[in-house]
Write a structure and sequence with these properties.
alpha+beta; 7 strands
Length: 153
C-alpha cells in the first residue's frame, strides 16, 4: 500500500489519456479512450508527489443525455463524468473518493441539478456510496457489463 495525501487539480484532456488507456482499456488502441467532447470537458487529476495516479473528466450541458428517471427540471444543466481511472497500485486508498468528491462539488458549483455516469457493474457499489442509483437495464461495452447511475445534486 502506498501512502499519499493526493493533490487534486485541473489537468488537460491529453494528460488523462495514458492513465485512461492503461486502466480502462489496455487492450484497445489509445484512440479508444479519447472522447469526442474532450476539448469541452473539465479534467481533474490526483497526484501523489509528481505522479498522476487517478483521472476523471466532467462534461456539462445539454449534449449529455440524462437518465430517464432522473430527468432534471427544465433548463437545469446536467453533468456527466466519464473515464474515471485510478492506477491499480493506488486503488482502495481513498484517492478515487477524493477525486469524485471534487467532481461532485465542481458540477454542483456549475449549477448542475443531476450528475450521471455509465458505471462498470464492478464499480456500482463504489458509486452507491455517493448516493448514485442505477437506472435502466444492464448493457455492455465489449465484454464489460455497465449500468447507468445518477444522483440529484
Amino acid at each position: 500500500m502506498n501512502n499519499c495525501t493526493p493533490r487534486i487539480q485541473p489537468i488537460t484532456a491529453e494528460q488523462t489519456y495514458a492513465l485512461r488507456h492503461s486502466v480502462l482499456w489496455p487492450d484497445k488502441p489509445l484512440s479508444f479512450v479519447k472522447v469526442d467532447d474532450d476539448d469541452t470537458g473539465y479534467h481533474f487529476g490526483a497526484f501523489c508527489g509528481e505522479v498522476l495516479v487517478a483521472v476523471i473528466s466532467l462534461f456539462m450541458g445539454a449534449d449529455t443525455i440524462p437518465p430517464v428517471a432522473g430527468s432534471p427540471a427544465a433548463g437545469s444543466p446536467v453533468a456527466r463524468f466519464r473515464k474515471f481511472a485510478t492506477h491499480p497500485d493506488w486503488q482502495r486508498q481513498g484517492i478515487g473518493t477524493q477525486l469524485l468528491s471534487r467532481v461532485i462539488a465542481e458540477a454542483t458549483g456549475r449549477g448542475a441539478s443531476l450528475l450521471w455516469c455509465d458505471a462498470r457493474l464492478a464499480s456500482a457499489d463504489f458509486y452507491r456510496k455517493f448516493g448514485m442509483q442505477p437506472e435502466g437495464d444492464v448493457f455492455h461495452k465489449g465484454p464489460i457489463p455497465y449500468t447507468r447511475m445518477s444522483r440529484k445534486l
